[in-house]
Amino acid sequence: MKKISAKILRVAVLAAAVIVSMLITTALSHHSFAMYDMTKTVTFTGVLTRFVSQANHAEIHFVPLGSDGKPQRGSDGKYVSWGIEMAGAAVMAQQGISVNSFPYGTIFSVSLHPLRDGKNFGSMEGPIYKCPKDTPPPAGKHCNSVAGSTQHGRGNFAN
Question: 3-state SS string over 20-56?
Answer without folding.
Answer: HHHHHHHHHHHCCCCCECCCCCEEEEEEEEEEECCCC
